[in-house]
Amino acid sequence: MTETKLSDLLEECLVRCRNLEVPLADRLQTFANELRRLGPHFQVAVDALVSRLAESDAGATAPKVGEPMPSFLLPDEQGRLVRLEDILGQGPVALAFNRGHWCPYCRINVDALARAEEEVAAEHRHIAAIVPDRQKFAMWLKSDAKAPFPVLTDMDNGYAMTLGLAFYVGDELKHLMVSSGWDPSVSQGTDNWMLPIPATFIVGTDGIIRARFVDPDYRMRVAIEDLLAALRSAT
Q1: What is the Cα Rg of the chain in Å?
Q2: Rounded to the nearest 5°, which phi and psi values hold at 230?
Q3: Which bin fits 227, alpha (ψ -120 to 50), beta or left (φ > 0)?
Q4: How far is residue 65's CA from residue 63's CA, in Å, rounded to a whole number?
């Protein structure tokens, strides 16, 4: 198996995992197991990256529960500028940082978030995804997941960087990602190879963080049940 075929081989696996009627964590773990089987060398590099981030306490300085969520002004997939205050005017929100439309784990996650939004939208509680992708790629991600919520573009990971969530991928993983068919520099429009740590913040209408999930291992995401419970308890 050549590296250049890895992403193509995993596309069918991604769709299968995304459609499993099991908790999100199990869907993500099933995909991770397949990737480890099909591209063990790739997963070794991922494990090394995750260890490096954990040792450096990546994400540790991100805003915490009880603190105000820093405001933003970001374009959505239609190019419309959206402020945090605009979203909070509709009710509490879950802000979910994702790495981009090209990331299989993010596609599985955003699909799960789209289903979650359908459960709580009538209760005036919402979700918004944030990615470093340019508009057309953010639109593709939204369409792929049939997401009813906005997918906001954080160009150059500027907002993620202010939150302490942006990190450099590293040369080894950069080479493996490109040769395997995943090149975020194309969708980001920059060659800085910075990515956000996938993180989710539940923010009340007063702008205060009610709950958060920050893990430098991008294979891990907040459980949908926990997200829904936190959204429903937020005011």
Answers
A1: 17
A2: -70, -40
A3: alpha
A4: 7
Type and span of the H or E element at 74: strand 73-75
Residues 6+ apart with CB under 8 A from 55: none
By CB neighbour count within 10 A (0-12 exposed, 13-18 middle, 19+ buried), where does 19 fall? exposed
**Tokens 């573009």 sit on residue:** 153
Tokens of 139: 């639109």
pTM of the model: 0.94
pLDDT values of the chain reduced to their tens digit, one per residue, 235 residues: 444 467 778 888 999 999 999 999 999 999 999 989 988 888 899 999 999 999 999 999 999 999 999 999 999 999 999 999 999 999 999 999 999 999 999 999 999 999 999 999 999 999 999 999 999 999 999 999 999 999 999 999 999 999 999 999 999 899 989 888 889 999 999 999 999 999 999 999 999 999 999 999 999 999 999 999 999 999 9
* Alpha-carbon gap, residue 134 to 196, rounded angstroms: 14
Rounded to whole angstroms, how far apart are CA atoms 121 and 133?
25
Buried/exposed code over 66-92 (b: 16+ C-beta within 10 A; e: otherwise):
eeebeebebbbbeeeebebeebbeebb
What is the residue whose two structure tokens read 């906001």? 152
Report the alpha-carbon distance of residue 24 to residue 200 in Å, rounded: 14
**DSSP readout, 172-230?**
HHHHHHHHTT--HHHHHT-SS-EEEPPEEEEE-TTSBEEEEEE-S-TT----HHHHHHH
